[in-house]
Amino acid sequence: MATIIDGRNSAAELNATTARRVAQLKKKGIVPGIAVILVGDDPASVIYTRNKDRKAKKLGIRSILKRFPADARQAEVLATIQEFNNDDRINAILVQSPLPSQLDETTLVQAIDPAKDVDGFHPVNVGKLYGNEEGNYPIPCTPRGIMTMLSKYQVPIAGSNAVIIGRSNLVGKPMLSLLTNANATVTMLNHLTPNPQYYTQNADLLIVGVGQPNFIHAADVKKGATVIDVGINRNSSGHLVGDVDFEDVQKVAAKITPVPGGVGPMTIASLMEQTVDLAEWSE
Ligand SMILES: NC(=O)C1=CN([C@@H]2O[C@H](COP(=O)(O)OP(=O)(O)OC[C@H]3O[C@@H](n4cnc5c(N)ncnc54)[C@H](OP(=O)(O)O)[C@@H]3O)[C@@H](O)[C@H]2O)C=CC1
Ligand SMILES: Nc1nc(=O)c2c([nH]1)NC[C@@H]1CN(c3ccc(C(=O)N[C@@H](CCC(=O)O)C(=O)O)cc3)C=[N+]21
Question: Which of 108, 267, 268, 270 to mutate to test ligand 2, by most ligand atoms within 8 A of the CB atom?
Answer without folding.
Answer: 267
